[in-house]
Amino acid sequence: MTSYPPIRLSGRWTLDDRLARQVHGVAFTLPPGARAFTVELSYDRSAGVLDLGCEGPDRFRGWSGGARSRYTIAPTWATPGYLPGEPEQGTWQVLLGLYRVPLDGLPYDVTVTPHATPPEPPAPPADPPPSAVVPASARRGLPALDGLRWRAGELHAHTVHSDGVLTVPELATLARSQGLDFLAVTDHNTVSHHAELPEVAARTGITLVPGQEVTTDLGHANAFGDIGWVDFRRPADTWAKAASEQGGLLSVNHPLGADCAWRQPFTERPRTAEVWHSGWWDRTWGAPLSWAQAWRDDLVYIGGGDYHRPEENHPPGAPCTWVLAEPSGEGGRAIVEGIRAGRTAVSAGPEGPLLLRHGEEFLILDADGLVLWGPEHRSVIYGDRVTLPARPGPHRLETTRNEVMALCT
User: Tens of pLDDT along 121-167?
Assistant: First the structure.
């Protein structure tokens, strides 16, 4: 059996390198006959943070950010976050994202091990049993409107394809067990999870929306739809253009989220934003709503739980985004189109107080004693199933202590 010596690449990143651009490539060439390779990154993690990815001679091959320090690419399988396929001849790049670099620099070592015989993939975990939970949209008796149905879901979640801990089947089953109709899988800067979605959706009974979280050190955005990979290294305007041209949609994520707050420039601001993020833990804090009002006067509000792991103590659907959509749509296209049309609402969870703009009416559920706030109207809600004439503009339900409980566009 042919064996190849490892390719060793070392250097030191400086703060000037980080300021020049976020992502740098370290070039290598595979020996003829190599059919797979493994990359390992080593550096002092107490001194800084380097993200990890890969670009082939002809295409982007994947990204795992800071979630792992090793990946393998082989003809029929790859480490989650990366795309399998025969390695092309030519110049490859180990991509390194300079996320945190100290003033005195950050030394690194990269080892590329070519394989003449592709290694066997690791054994996948057993799929969980399917959930029998009836979706909240059905349990709550929400009416149809012109052939459209309200559907409850999660629009921001991660798997082992980036920095989550669950596989795609595990995440889909968990979301279904929370009473959700749909789930967008939005791993960071990769689409390697997209290939799994159709089969997992059919098996678990939940609509899976292809997504990717376009992630930079100046802000994150979700690109929804089966639109191909969006190059996070390019200006933000190109992300929106790429999504639109392929029938997808771009949404600004957690715009006030600490060091992930939105600071990217846009020529034209996207019309969709994750106004309610799971990090909005004190919902008497009005800054997210103030940001939304300043961003665009026709903003479409959505929510995102940003689910990564169980110990975060907020399952998929917290917050829950509701979309009035066609009852069917291959690959989640109906959900994307419903969001694009502005037919959305957000609640704390699939069972929480709910405010829907249902045609010419507001449909308000389980909100007895809450206050309906709008640009030109406010009133106390009496009863657990109330309809009121709809008024223009975004509206919300609040408690008497001004805690936001539900939003609608």
Answer: 999 899 999 999 999 999 999 999 999 999 999 999 999 999 999 99
Q: Is residue 177 assigned to a domain?
A: yes
β partners of residue 251: 222, 272
Q: Rounded to the nearest 5 degrees, what angle is found at the Cα of 396, between the Cα atoms of 391 and 397?
A: 120
CA 86/CA 358 separation, integer angstroms: 51
Helix (H) or strand (E) holding 302: strand 300-304
CB 74 within 8 Å of CB 2: no
Task: State the residue for tokens 């921001």.
Answer: 156
Kindly compute the dihedral angle of the four CA atoms of residues 138, 144, 148, 152, in this order, to the nearest 10 degrees. -30
How does pLDDT run across 270-309, given as a tens digit for each residue?
Answer: 999 999 999 999 999 999 999 999 999 999 999 999 999 9
Domain match, 359 and 339 both: no
* Whether the Cβ atoms of residue 213 and residue 191 lie closer than 8 Å to each other: no
Query: Are 285 and 297 within one domain?
Result: yes
